[in-house]
Amino acid sequence: MANDTLWGHPKGLYILFLTEMWERFSYYGMRTLLVYYMIKHLMLPQADASQIYGLYTGLVYFTPFFGGLLADRFWGQRRTVIVGGVIMAAGHFCMAFESLFFPALALLILGNGAFKPNISTQVGGLYPPNDPRRDRAFSLFYVGINLGAFMSPLICGTLGEVYGWHYGFGAAGVGMVIGLGIYIWGLRWLGPDHLHQLPEIEAVPPATLASDERQRIWGLLMICLITVLFWAAYEQQGNTIALWADTGTDRHIFGWEMPATWFQSLNPMFIFMFAPVITALWAWQARRSAEPSSATLMAMGCLLLGAAYLVLVTPANDYTAHGNPVSMWWLIGFNLVLTIGELYLSPVGLSLVCKLAPVRMVSMLMGVWFMTSFVGNYTAGYLGQFWEVLPKGYFFLMVAGVAGLAGVIILLLLKPLKRAIGGQAGI
User: How much is the pTM?
Assistant: First the structure.
């Protein structure tokens, strides 16, 4: 039944789409409120809140390495996803109690580690090798991620800001339970665990890697290392960009003040608006044999992210000079450019892992991909400490430089990357 199709894709894709949508609803609902909660409710200094935010969001992307290893070697993807979902639901509900703040963060970190890499891996596992639908499937899957991320600031953010922080955190927990229920109901349409496939498709002992496999892994690790800089800039959204929306942006519309948390819905809204457009563009380029390589697309994503921060430099300088909040259109433009940059990097990176990773290591290497976000998020928290030290225009210029540097490095290393990857088509 795993091979049943709907609208040209396996039915399992839509189960994973909905599961990840609700899981991301819960994660981004909590993330939307986190910095505001620490500064406005727990009364932490901004620099400390930034560090905690960076450490939490970083560890969320550190533990998937071990969750992938656990699935590859012992439990399989299905069981690991279910255990992770239960732990995360418990963490979200614990956030409703102030005294359980740090234990709740710990549960969310551990649960996400089990859940995150194994959902993404199962998307790739729905398709045979070299299936041209796989890249498009990850782009559709990415729409699901961002649909959940779009809804969560509007629902969890509004509940938290208007009715109380704990209502917002509780709503995030409900979302996680819904996602877990959908996943368990739809198991019939998912492929078998890679753990169970090994005796059928792998004749090589688990500890042995062929020469071309080693080359592909090294190439993948090179790309992962560079994208740390991308995530360090990108993950300012829930940290310093959230503070900019709260204090530096005029949020009034005909006398009504928009909640600051709603601006965190702009990025996911633009994702599901423009993902089909970008996917269609790539398909059009592919038909004409003009589609850029995966590494080139990722370099373009880094450069676009840098350009997004440049959009904010001029209004930030005006804010510093005059002290008046600036038009919200600057923040809208920032999110638009950032979103296009994200579409050029993140889903391409997920697909690249599935293309390059040996089957017996795919979940573990998906964890390595997410580990780049760990380092990037932690670095984002470190950079956020300069928010109250530097003039805002200089801060945004600094972050733009970090993202742009990643793009330049990838472009300079295109030839060595292709050699390391071993001539894989489209890389």
Answer: 0.82
Looking at residue 256, its amino acid is: W
| Residue 263 forms part of a structural domain | yes
**CA distance linking residue 282 with residue 271, whole number of Å:** 16
Task: Please give the share of the chain, as a percent, with pLDDT higher than 90.
Answer: 50
- Of 219, 135, 131, nearest in space to 422 by CA: 219
Asked if residue 199 is part of any domain, the answer here is no
Contact (Cβ atoms closer than 8 angstroms) between residue 309 and residue 397: yes
Per-residue pLDDT of 222-251, as tens digits, reads: 888 899 999 999 999 989 999 999 999 999
Model confidence over 42-98: pLDDT tens digits?
889 998 999 999 999 889 888 888 888 888 888 888 899 999 999 999 999 998 888
pLDDT tens digits for range 141-160: 877 888 898 999 999 999 99
pLDDT digits (tens, 9 = 90+) for 312-337: 999 999 998 888 999 999 999 999 99
User: Is 164 within the bounds of a domain?
Assistant: yes
Q: Which residues contact 322 (CB under 8 A, 6 or more apart)?
A: none
Q: Are 150 and 270 in contact (CB under 8 A)?
A: no
Beta carbons of 31 and 381 less than 8 angstroms apart = no
Domain count of the chain? 1
CA pair distance 151, 110, nearest whole angstrom: 24
What are the backbone dihedrals phi and psi of residue 52, each rounded to the nearest 5 degrees, phi first? -65, -45
The CATH number of residue 324's host domain is 1.20.1250.20
The predicted pLDDT at position 1 comes to 47
Judge whether 200 lies within some domain: no
Q: Which residue has the tokens 């890679």?
A: 194
- Supply the range of the domain harboring residue 164: 5-194+210-421
Q: What CA–CA distance (Å, rounded) separates 78 from 187?
A: 8
pLDDT at 205 over 50: no
For 309, counting Cβ atoms within 10 Å of its Cβ (0-12 exposed, 13-18 middle, 19+ buried), the class is: buried
Task: Look at phi and psi of residue 323 and say left if phi exceeds 0, alpha if psi is from -120 to 50, else beta.
Answer: left
